[in-house]
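Hello again, I could really use a second opinion on something today. I've been staring at a protein lately and its backbone has me curious. You're getting the sequence in one-letter code plus the fold written as tokens. I'd be grateful if you could look everything over and explain what you see. No rush at all, and the record is pasted right below:
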Amino acid sequence: MKVAIVGAGLAGRLLAWRLVQHCRDTDQPIAVTLCDRQSRSFMGTGRIAAAMVAPFTEAVTTESTTRELGVVSWRLWQKWLPQLEAATGHKVEFNQQGTLVVAHPADLPDWQRFQQKAQADTPPEAMQYWSQSELQQQEPELSHAFRQAMYFPEEGVIDNDSFYKALDTWLDSTQEVTWHEGMECGELSSTGEATRGYLKACDEQFDYVFDCRGNDAREDQSELRSVRGEVVRVHAPEVNLTRAIRLTHPRYPLYIAPRPNHHYVIGATTLESDDDSPVTVRSALELLSALYSLNTGFSEARIQFLQAGLRPAFNDNLPRIVREEQLIRINGLFRHGYLFAPALVDEVIQSLC
């Protein structure tokens, strides 16, 4: 089987890896051409994202499909990442310590609404209530500012730096994948012969072509829109948070994703915009003010970067797999790339093989 994957972001690279691995496991021949108009070092959303795998807390404010896909992805990450580590010798940090949802006393009504919705939609074993004393025991640096928390144990955070390093090593080492960087790709129209003419620099014929271009596919998928997200990454040696944190707030709900060695990725903003210019002063002030209110130890943190990215989304903010003969489109992952991508990739592969 010969396939082309157009778009080498998170979904494209993940698909190339898992498709080759599946064909190896089932003794099927496979040749993958992976191409993208950017170089592999491009700071796309998969690289700057918080990379949270949070099916239950995300589902509180979205559809149940988010939780269903997220639970599948959570289990796949638990299975796949050890395989990637074994194959490459690179450690991929996967924090599986769960998520805490907290709120300052003045914002308790927002926290209570979140709690009511979570209790209605979350299995009892996937959610716990922590008192201030339990916070003191489990996450002591939060107990001075918060009286209670919701704890979701079956959630986590992937260190995307170590993940991309391991995945790129695997893709470079396998003979089944040919990776073209900086290749402009033509429109992926399904009219005419579905497997010809899609790669301007390749005249090969493919059994399947996968469109994983995200926002770059808007010419072919007019219903796609862009959603801007802004994040800051800091190094805070004085802060010791072990779990992902969500701070409920009426204006700027905040999430903090811990990384190894006292690094943290913080995000909040979700803006309906095609603007991919740098982070605004207002957004930066709101992010950093909320961060300081969570833990005063962040006052001496060093800012490593402030970045913005555009995420592709459909009107319902849910992903889609669209099959048009041999052309298969995977898109609309919104701000849930790490939450949706494994489930979608596995679904596509199972439908083919």
